[in-house]
Amino acid sequence: MADADDVLSAEADDHFHDECGVFGIFGRQDAAAIVTLGLHALQHRGQEAAGIVSYDGTQFHVERHVGLIGDTFTKQGVMDRLQGNRAIGHTRYATTGGAGIRNIQPFFAELADGGFAVAHNGNLTNAMTVQRALQKQGAIFSSTSDTETLLHLVATSKERDLNSRFIDAVRQVEGAFSLVAMTAKKMIGCRDPLGIRPLVLGDLDGAWILASETCALDIIGARFVRDLKPGEMVVVTAKGIESLFPFEPQKTRFCIFEYVYFARPDSSVEGRNVYEVRKRIGAELAQENPVEADIVVPVPDSGTPAAIGFSQAAGIPFELGIIRNHYVGRTFIQPGDSIRHMGVKLKHNANRRMIEGKRVVLVDDSIVRGTTSQKIVQMVRDAGAKEVHMRIASPPTSASCFYGVDTPEKSKLLASRMSIQEMAEFIRVDSLGFLTIDGLYRAVGEAGRDSEQPQFCDACFTGQYPTRLLDFEGHDNVRTLSLLSTSGA
């Protein structure tokens, strides 16, 4: 028999899981409360667990909980335990290391010269390689998260001051990382040299803020200052802010899927409003994949802006033909045979009045395994649709992500083993169309994709990864690590 958890887990497994969100503030007495609000705005980037570390001038305080921000950090007494005028926080979905309290960030440790906390959005593609080298030297890891590797690298660095030790650490890791760290005297933000993951700088009445997205600044009334540049490290102290560039300059490769799905529509990412980009994506999709139809229906919620753009460009009316239930719980339904037949209807229901007798264009952001798309198509047909066409606001997803997005292995991605026609037959639509990679680039403001030097990380569509994937290729890179050198990096 299946229960509600089984059904919801099966549906969740057919979507990309959001990565993580980070937030930090320096110089505000209600720091932890501000971080809680910021993390609430970033909840879409991870709903599994969250943590906050604060500092009150004497000691650090750590709270880490499984669950949503609003269900955990608003409980009586939690904020009372997070005193101080600086704090960093993290909301997560497990991409590396799995679930569990021990993997909840920020990670905190007492180092030789004081406490150090760090939170990380992204994924280190050589973390296991580095960990093996550290373990051979006697290091003991208390989690299975790649982020803990950074703690050990900072702790074991032979450099004399914290800034130099932090730089020494980040130079030894590869992959995608946007980091927020904190000590008794400073807050540090850092992006990887390719700038794969976002990180922004804000100001709230003189208090400096670091956050994954601008929507986290909006919720607290903070001023957006700028995006951190790829490869940039900012150090915030009581004296102000300092900008450093510890990496050799490289051509940036920001994750293009942030525009398709991950970022909140009301955020501005790398100078582009996400909602506007998604509408342009829909317009490009309509031009590349025209279809005669009566209504355009988004698969809520992620398909909505693209569906609006598709409708406007195609001249086909936009309708909310599918209604999403935002209040699905995991415990109120008793197990039973009937639950197996509810499937996607736990979260979505067809609006029959809008659909019956119509030729429907369904717009969604992506197809992963295809099972959820299959159920949604059948639901629309059961509601009386005359025809069902599906348009996808991204290219076919044919490769796994190794940069902080939890995706199925390549063999389980529908586009990796089927042609578009075969996919159409599998999900039982009258036609299926995807946005081209050049169409996606045009939507974000580029003339097209530079095949020699792509402007973004688009590996999930092209299989062209911008960094080495040492942990996933079976290679060992210990020879390049400064932790094995007497002179350091």
Q: What can you tell me about this protein's structure?
A:
The chain is of the alpha+beta class. The protein has two domains: 19-253, Glutamine Phosphoribosylpyrophosphate, subunit 1, domain 1; 273-446, Rossmann fold. Helix content is 27%, strand content 24%. The chain has 17 helices and 23 strands. The protein has helices at 4-12, 31-41, 69-72, 127-136, 148-156, 162-170, 215-218, 257-262, 274-288, 304-314, 352-355, 371-382, 414-417, 420-427, 437-443, 459-462, 470-473; strands spanning 20-26, 49-55, 60-66, 86-92, 107-111, 114-124, 175-182, 187-191, 200-204, 207-211, 223-227, 233-237, 240-244, 254-255, 268-269, 272-273, 295-298, 322-324, 348-350, 359-364, 387-392, 431-434, 456-457. The chain has a seven-stranded antiparallel β-sheet with strand order 3-2-4-1-10-9-11. It has a six-stranded antiparallel β-sheet with strand order 5-6-7-8-12-13, covered by helices on one side. Helix 5 packs across helix 6 (162-170), helix 9 packs across helix 10 and helix 9 (274-288) packs across helix 15 (437-443). The longest helix is centred in the middle third of the chain and has 15 residues, at 274-288. The radius of gyration is 23 Å and the shape is globular. The termini are far apart. The model is unreliable at 1-12, 330-337 and 474-489 (pLDDT under 50).
Which fold name corresponds to the CATH topology of the largest domain? Glutamine Phosphoribosylpyrophosphate, subunit 1, domain 1
The name of the CATH architecture of the largest domain is 4-Layer Sandwich
SS-based class: alpha+beta
Total beta strand runs: 23
Give the percentage of residues in beta strands.
15-25%
CATH-assigned homologous superfamily of the largest domain: Aminohydrolase, N-terminal nucleophile (Ntn) domain
General shape: globular
Gap between N and C termini: 56 Å
The number of distinct helices, counting runs of at least 4 residues, comes to 17
